[in-house]
Amino acid sequence: MFRQLHKRVSRLSAPLWLILLGLIPATLSARDFTYEGVTYTVISEEDHTVKTKEGYITQENYGKPWEDPIIIETLNPGNTVKGELTIPSKVNDGTNFYIVKEIGNLGFYENTGLTSVTIPNSVTSIGKKAFMNCRSLASVSIPSSVTFISDEAFRDCRLLASISIPSSVTSIGESAFYYCSSLASVSIPSSVTSIGKWVFAGCSSLASVSIPSSVTSIGDYAFRGCSSLASVSIPSSVTSIGSSAFSGCSSLASISIPSSVTSIGYEAFSGCSSLASISIPSSVTSIGSSAFSGCSSLASVSIPSSVTSIGSRAFSGCSSLASVSIPSSVTSIAYHTFEGCSSLTSVSIPSSVTSIGEGAFNGCSSLASISIPNPVTSIEDNTFKGCSSLTSVSIPSLVTSIGNEAFSNCSKLSSINIPDGVKTIGQYAFSNCPISELHFGKSVYSLGTSDGTAEAPAFSHSIFDGCSNLKTITVSDDNPYFIAYKDALVIKPDSMMVYCPDLSRTSCTIPATVRKIAANSFENCNNLASVSIPATVKEFADSLWYNCNSLRQVIYLAKDPATANKNIFNDATYSKGTLHCPKNSMDKYYLAIPWGWFEKMEAASGCFLNSDLMTLEPGDSYQLTAEAITEDGRPFTYKWSSSNPAVASVDSNGLVKAIAKGEAEIKVIATDNKGNTLEAICAVTVKYILSISHSAINISADESFQLGIVSKFEDLKINWSTSDPAVAYVNNCGLVTAMCESGECVVSAEVEGETVECKVYVGIETGTIPEGVNYTTDKSSKTITITESPDAKGDIVIPMNVIIDGDVYTVTKLDERAFADAYSRITSIFVPNSVTEIAKHAFIHCENLTYLHLGSELKSLGEGALGFCKATVLECEAVTPPTLGVDCLWSSSIGTLRVPAESVSAYKNTGWKSVGKTVEGVDFGSSRQSRAPEMGGVEPTAIIYESVTRDPDMLNVRLEPVGASTVIDWTSSNPEVATIDRGLITFLSKDGETVFGATTESGLKATSPSMSEESSAIDDVIAPETVRPNDIYNLQGICLKRNATDDDIKSLRPGLYIIAGKKVIVK
Fold this sequence. Notes:
Blueprint: H1 2-9, H2 14-22, E1 32-35, E2 38-44, E3 49-52, E4 56-61, E5 71-76, E6 83-86, E7 90-92, E8 97-103, E9 114-118, E10 125-126, E11 139-141, E12 148-149, E13 162-164, E14 171-172, E15 185-187, E16 194-195, E17 208-210, E18 217-218, E19 231-233, E20 240-241, E21 254-256, E22 263-264, E23 277-279, E24 286-287, E25 300-302, E26 309-310, E27 323-325, E28 332-333, E29 346-348, E30 355-356, E31 369-371, E32 378-379, E33 392-394, E34 401-402, E35 424-425, E36 437-440, E37 446-447, E38 458-459, E39 472-475, E40 482-484, E41 489-491, E42 496-499, E43 507-509, E44 516-517, E45 530-533, E46 539-540, E47 553-556, H3 571-576, E48 578-582, H4 586-591, E49 601-604, E50 606-609, E51 613-616, E52 621-623, E53 626-629, E54 637-642, E55 648-650, E56 655-658, E57 662-671, E58 677-686, E59 691-692, E60 696-699, E61 703-706, E62 709-710, E63 719-722, E64 728-730, E65 735-738, E66 743-751, E67 754-762, E68 775-778, E69 783-786, E70 794-797, E71 801-804, E72 807-814, E73 826-830, E74 837-838, E75 849-854, E76 860-861, ...
Parallel strand pairs: 3-8, 6-9, 8-10, 9-11, 10-12, 12-14, 13-15, 15-17, 16-18, 17-19, 18-20, 19-21, 20-22, 22-24, 23-25, 24-26, 27-29, 28-30, 31-33, 32-34, 34-35, 35-37, 36-39, 37-38, 42-44, 43-45, 44-46, 45-47, 47-48, 48-49, 51-58, 60-67, 69-72, 70-73, 72-74, 73-75, 74-76, 75-77, 76-78, 77-79, ...
Antiparallel strand pairs: 1-2, 2-3, 4-5, 7-8, 40-41, 41-42, 50-53, 52-56, 54-57, 55-56, 57-58, 59-62, 61-65, 61-83, 63-66, 64-65, 66-67, 68-69, 71-72, 81-82, 83-86, 84-85, 86-87, 89-90, 89-91, 91-92
């Protein structure tokens, strides 16, 4: 057994050796003797003092040698006695008398037959667990000589009904009277200055307690579960009330908190179900989480203006709380703060509050109205769930997201105003609300799900689950993601129908803009009897109308029917319903699934267009064709018209011409010789289709980056702007210049109301994840986790930050087996400073590393993380040595360990001391991330002067090509007239002239003409005859022609151009 244990222990660190050695039982003492049935241990032969014999702990390892040890611990008493015990002050060993000074640790542990104890006046301390689990002990006499009652001394003495603590006691240990469930009263002497943790917890019979003015703190759980405690007076000397101090004191009806208290701890009064009122003094600055949770009788509470933070669930379950006023000193309402306050009818939230946490008012069933302050930007999950009396709510304009179930089961909420800025609305957000009409603004791209993005909008019907009254859905006309019709909600980019509003409807005409119909679009449309499907629909999800048991008429107007799963309709629709389809295509329908399953098929009449929806740019044309189909095949004449000819016109033959930005409907009316008409409509959107050269850029301080716009138009007026000029400025040419050391902003280019954006990051080092390295992303936290990467090889440099879809994501973790079993495949690994956790087996069997770098923020390496790892050099920048998991370094071989110079001793005194044959202290400086590849634009090939513009005064230059970046040195030839800083000009004098210059690091230059405060910004023009052939640009920086010839220049339309860095006017 010992050999097996030694095998296991030999793998462990020295501190654990010491622990295991300490587990060997020590049942023998220097000298014990027995007197009148009780064994004593000599403390001092010189002083003739003894203590009752201490108990001991036996520990056995039941683990297998190759597993972690399983330690079973057994407590054993020093003495075993029954009945009444009177300990004498003097005892005799047969030769000498000794004075009894202490009751030893575990001295009478679990003496279940012991009924009473008299402790002599000679005893000064009662040891740990001395009488623990003496469950028949009914009385104890503690003399005035005792100064210290140790931890758990009388724990679980369930028959102990009263205790007198003498004034000599200065300290009562943790859990000293824990679970003394018969203890009815206790008087704490004024010699005690603090009440420790768990001291009277579980004393369910304790009806009263007197806390003296000497006490300055009440420890965590001190009176927890004292269910009979009806009142308690806290003296003014107390400054803090610990966590759960009075938790579960269900009889506590009132309590006075003195003005000396500054904080109320976690769960301090939770479960005090009889507590009817509470006065919180103005000295209190924080109310801990769940501090008053479950105080079901608490009818009112006054929160003073001194309080700056209210913890999560602080008043949850206070079902009698009718009103509450939150002071303006509070800036946030934590999650579930007032959850289950079913009597709460009003709450005053100050304008200082900027966030309201998840479930904050969940289940406040009496809350009729609430005003959310303007600074709040999001409504979190479950915030107002189950507020069944809520009839109205005002959502501020800054809110951008509404969480899952935010207003679910608000059974009286018939209307709600959703501001334009809301982008995402979560699952079941309005489920079971009697809303009849709902309008969504221009920004929303994710409805009923968290999966939607601006690039890929998404919808889930859960958002309206149980909204049986919902008849109308509308969406702002300028919303690019969704469009609402009378009979359908459609995702614009996909032309996909996702929802049919008004569940009571009997018929539905799907608009011609729809190309596909998503799953669950007709869920719960139980009364639907007729559906008309346009020819444009080519994709059907499974089970679309399977549960529409009343559906009997289906109209599908496609000449070539799209196939679908048979289950889109149920058997009753196939056997009892009728399919109406174009006469000339009926043979195709008979052969196509699912249409051939209809037992009855009839010819449908209709007018059909070759396109029902189109997007054009100004100047584009499109030929529409129409065909009227009837059962008898009679002839028709066609008349075309436009609802908005200023946007899109149509001639008598159906040729559509896009004129200007906007929307129009092109209608064709087919008329037979008897005057009968059929009609069809094509929806036309006219807009500029733009893209920007870069969706995100990362530049250093003082660096400039050339953005560009991609468009087929040469004469667009592009308005460049920045969301924060203090971070980055953009000139009239799209040249972005960093204006600070670090920050981020958005640069926008707007053309005729169409806007494209580029996210600009200044001073943020970014890179790319190396090839072969796998990773996952967390959108909410914008973090990256490196996952198992069996294809990674060579030198691996992991960047700190990576730009993904325009957002900066930070690498924070290496997951389990990230680079496991690389053997000789990987030669070096650089882990950036942003990584805080490396999971188990991350580098196991990386056996050919010349270099391994771990960053400054690393907190832990998991089990076996460096197992069998061989590295010539291992660098760890963390000042505090990261914790090492079990067998983290198993069979590893590290040549040199480099750590911060100031932390060498710290590493040598932890598990790291076995790492490395040598340990070096290094000054790592600020950041070693420079090892990672630097990201930036390409080098410019030209810098071109364009103009000086006003408001603000700015020198506008461009870099060639688009995407080029550089540091530009800006100069003024006469600083007394004007100075220039990063392109921004400050005129200092109305007299005199100056020439502005811009020079790149590589020596490319551009200069302005001689300028004064009164001079024009477009004086620098010359005739085209004087210009040599080169690339041609317009004034917005769009390249019109590469390597233009003389003929190209001569063929230019009248206007201003830039050729060879000069402004050229063509008349």
